[in-house]
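Researcher: Here's the sequence for the chain we discussed earlier.
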Amino acid sequence: MNGFTRVVSAVTGGREAKGVAPGGDRVGRGMQPPQARDRADDDAAVRAATAIYHAATGRSLDRRSRLRLGALAHYGFSAGLGVAYVLLAERFPAIRRGIGTLYGGLVWAIADEGLMPALNLSRSPRQLSAGMHAYSLLGHAVYGSALECARMTLSRRDLWEVRPRSVEQELHME
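Model: Thanks. This is the structure I predict for it:
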């Protein structure tokens, strides 16, 4: 998502869409910063990770540690959903429709539009502009496509087969 965020920010002069959360800590932070309730450095991943950390330790974190923990939470959530995708794609091939964009759209609808606002971790979908929804949905479609491309590549048996070669084949290789 970092590349996607950088391209959109470059094309739009630093703003993903009208109504995004203010603040410069966007690049490298995934899709949440524009939907943050107040500032870009206080997105859903940062809020969730910080709350869990505080509940477990009783301590607060400085800004830099909050951002790092938020990034870890975001990438951990994404990796977990990636594993879920691979498992679902084998059992329910329909989830692969649109080269994974269906799954990316479902993640957007359920997590970004549903769970995060319901848990008060991000703004309500009604508080976001149409451009912000389009930006976020497109980003999640890219995520779903990346998952499907990785799944297709890694599931190719010929990538993992070790084919013994004869001495003659080895000697004639350049």
